[in-house]
Design goal:
The complex is a heterodimer of chains A (about 100) and B (about 550).
Chain A: E1 8-14, E2 20-23, E3 29-30, H1 42-53, E4 59-70, E5 73-76, H2 79-86, H3 95-98
Antiparallel strand pairs in A: 1-2, 1-4, 2-3, 4-5
Chain B: H1 6-28, H2 33-42, E1 45-47, E2 52-57, E3 62-63, H3 65-78, E4 82-85, E5 90-93, H4 101-109, E6 127-128, H5 143-153, E7 168-171, E8 185-192, E9 195-202, E10 214-221, H6 225-239, H7 250-257, H8 259-276, H9 280-291, H10 303-311, H11 313-322, E11 323-325, E12 331-336, E13 347-349, H12 350-363, E14 368-370, E15 376-382, H13 386-395, E16 410-411, H14 426-439, H15 442-445, E17 450-453, E18 467-474, E19 477-484, E20 496-497, E21 502-503, H16 507-521, H17 529-536, H18 539-546, H19 550-556
Parallel strand pairs in B: 6-7, 7-8, 16-17, 17-18
Antiparallel strand pairs in B: 1-2, 2-5, 3-14, 4-5, 4-13, 8-9, 9-10, 11-12, 12-15, 14-15, 18-19, 19-20, 19-21
Helix pairs in contact in B: 1-2, 1-4, 3-4, 3-12, 5-9, 6-8, 10-11, 14-16, 16-18
Classes of the chains: A alpha+beta (about 100), B alpha+beta (about 550).
Amino acid sequence: MPKAFTPKVVTANALLEGDVIYLASDDRWVRRLDEAEIITDEAIAQLRLLDAQARASEAVGVYLADMAPTEDGPQPKHFREEFRATGPSNYHHGKQAAG
Amino acid sequence: MYSYTEFDTAFVAERNRQFRQQVERRISGALTEDEFKPLRLMNGLYLQLHAYMLRVAIPYGTLNGAQMDQLALLAEKWDKGYGHFTTRQNIQYNWPELRDVPDMLDALAEVGMHAIQTSGNTIRNVTADHFAGAAADEVADPRPVAELLRQWSTDHPEFQFLPRKFKIAVTGAENDRAVIKAHDIGIQVVEHGGEIGYRVLVGGGLGRTPMIGKELAPFVPQEDLLPYVEAVVSVWNLLGRRDNKYKARIKITVHEHGIDEIRERVASRFAETKAAFNGADLALFDEIAAQFAPPAFRNAPTEAFDAAYEADPVFRAWTDSNLTAHKAGGYAIAQISLKAHGETPGDATAEQMRVMADLARRFGHDELRITHEQNVVLPHVHKSDLPQIHKILKAHGLATANIGMISDIIACPGMDYCALATARSIPIAQEIATRFDELKIENEIGELKIKISGCINACGHHHVGHIGILGLDRAGVENYQITLGGDATETASLGERTGPGFPAEEVVPAIERIVGAYMDHREGPEESFLQTYRRLGMAPFKLALYGEDTGKRSRAA
Ligand code: HEM
Ligand code: SF4
């Protein structure tokens, strides 16, 4: 049996502000992980990635990040993505401060 | 203080103008990210985890009050109100937006500063002892020779496409505060029979393959220095491994060919390079040295200092840990710790920067230094002014009395900011400092340097920490490897791994056990942690860390 596909979100940094952004299902770039589109199909994930990479004047370093789907939205599988979602842990002024 | 020439000023202005256009073209879509990235890196602009980061050079870590004020302005206007001083004697801003960066660079140029990283495979900014021109133990100020090397290497046609980047550090004293043994070339100013010359080391470096530099020449006379350094770079330029980026640094070349063969090759190349120098460099050196002339020290009584020292235990503790002997009578070198317990190592708020700028102007001949240990220095203060300086520092959270102690930790940004990180380093530093402050045993422990990196690139110098901590990603969990016995000074050595690493929440208890073992085994308070480690080796520390099953666990690692 092929290995189960780990669900993904499309993520990047915003070109102008540099902050972490996610692709929502309506093609908007959003700042909050819980508003991101969670993709459970590998072929669709690749397509969404290609489309997002084409938006080079909005986003830098677009890639797919592993997520677990939950009731509260996508939950990062790796701690690096957790930090990206919340901001630095030494000051309360990253994403976590913005709310 | 050294100020840049008109040539330098025009060069920086032109670079800023070009970069402004490049940013506009990136935003308009005329430049792709692949085209833009090398351009922004050349101007000190990185993209990190949560934002852009702008890295501003502070040559030799030397700056004046106006420059520090300008750094405060940048922090307030374009960042979140603070800046981060680094082990490379730079300042980094963690939150600039792309559109603002050209304005930030123009603001820096107003005070003769820039973010040009002399990036790429060239000879990088030369670094020097942060006590240069002030330390009592100094043979001569190392900065004129550092500046000479900077001017010689900038745009040197032979050295624009080296196998890899190349870093030089210079110290003017036997006590090495510039970590010269961890640089591609380390230079120590020495004196033989009244003549000033240079001891040259080669092949040091940290990162993936850490190495301690080896002595190439015990004494190179002043007139031979540039041709000699040129010969070294030139030999490496030919031999260096261009096939593999991880083997390209000169430390690998020296390791593969051996120091004796390198020395012979340098000697024969030197015969050629020497012939090409006409002495113009010596005239230039004198010109530069004149600009680094010491300030006019005053001769005044120091009773005010002595009285405060007797009367105020807080002041006394601060002077005992934060002052260093100055070469002028009645003066001292005062370090301002950016390591308040529980705070981020190396961070200063805009207000704190202005306070330090103001202190430098009022009491310090308008000079400040940034140390590679992420602290700030007032290099020339008269002792009679110290009680007042201390009072002002205290009022702004800048009077922490912990220089060289367990809470004076070097930590790289790690995964709180850095895109290359495998784990966090700042919170580990914060927890260790907070814990030992609670225990109130810092003074009893004495000198103990902890250095933390968030990945193998070793920006936090963990290999040369008395206790080194390296954050790794072990199957998706932060894990910390501990090394003991590293040393960044003239007796440099690389730390040795204790054994298996520790999860984040076990790091502080592990450090406590190591410190406990030291306190139990030291011959007395005058035997430092490093001395005890050198006398006893790893065994007692291993036992304290892992208990009796030490052997099993380290084999399993
Ligand atoms: C956060 C952004 C940073 C990035 C992306 C970064 C990246 C790197 C990389 C890739 C290397 C290895 C280069 C090589 O060995 O060829 C390196 C080395 C180094 N970095 Fe950083 N760094 C960052 C921040 C810092 C900071 C904040 C400091 C000071 C606290 C620092 C100090 C150093 C030093 C001293 C080395 C040389 C270590 C050696 O001797 O090999 N870096 N950095
Ligand atoms: S050591 Fe690694 S984690 Fe730390 S700043 Fe350097 S590259 Fe980033």
